[in-house]
């Protein structure tokens, strides 16, 4: 196939752009989804992405009826079939021995053990180690202001 040959048929009627036209920059992604224009250099990312359009879900759970477009999605799902205690033993905080069911949850827990709290409230003296706690605190201030405004309107 020539470098700039536009499309080639794949199984089940899919097409893909093999290479971008020569006028594109050398560092731009080369593979493109024919359905929406999504671009990537990684072939398997494109294959998984295309399944969003086609509805293909080749990875099935042997315990229930769930199926998935990518193997990593199936693996994440399979963890849900495990006992919650078993899942929480997989990701342990080395500072406090608290267990989490995912590495992401542990990642978000870690700032609680840091000395400096990065998120400081500009309206009061409170500070927070995690963005989520700070966001919730800002909502509290906003709601407090709204309630005060509503009281003034009703007087």
TrEMBL record:
Tell me a GO cellular component: nucleus
Organism, as annotated: Drosophila ananassae (Fruit fly)
Q: Which UniProt keywords apply?
A: Metal-binding, Nucleus, Repeat, Transcription, Transcription regulation, Zinc, Zinc-finger
- Ranges annotated as biased composition (Basic residues): 136-146
Q: Which Gene3D superfamilies match?
A: Classic Zinc Finger
Q: Name one Pfam family in it.
A: zf-C2H2
Q: Which GO terms describe its molecular function?
A: DNA binding; DNA-binding transcription factor activity, RNA polymerase II-specific; zinc ion binding
Q: Look up keyword RNA-binding and say if it applies.
A: no
Domain C2H2-type: start-end pairs: 31-58, 59-81, 91-118, 119-146
- Location within or outside the cell: Nucleus
Q: What protein name is recorded for this chain?
A: C2H2-type domain-containing protein
Give the domain of life. Answer: Eukaryota
Principal location class: nucleus
Q: Does the keyword Metal-binding apply?
A: yes
Region feature (Disordered): 1-27, 135-155
Compositional bias, Basic and acidic residues, is annotated for 1-12
Q: Which residues form a coiled coil?
A: none
């Amino acid at each position: 196939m020539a470098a700039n040959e536009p499309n080639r048929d794949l199984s089940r009627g899919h097409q893909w752009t093999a290479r971008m036209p020569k006028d594109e920059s050398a560092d731009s992604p080369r593979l493109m989804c024919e359905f929406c224009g999504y671009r990537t250099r990684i072939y398997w990312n494109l294959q998984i992405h295309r399944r969003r359009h086609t509805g293909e879900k080749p990875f099935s759970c042997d315990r229930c009826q769930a199926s998935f477009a990518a193997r990593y999605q199936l693996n994440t799902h399979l963890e849900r079939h495990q006992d919650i205690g078993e899942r929480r033993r997989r990701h342990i905080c080395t500072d406090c021995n608290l267990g989490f069911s995912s590495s992401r949850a542990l990642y978000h827990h870690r700032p609680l053990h840091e000395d400096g709290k990065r998120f400081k409230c500009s309206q009061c003296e409170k500070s927070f180690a995690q963005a989520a706690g700070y966001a919730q605190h800002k909502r509290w201030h906003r709601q407090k202001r709204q309630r005060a405004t509503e009281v003034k309107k009703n007087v």
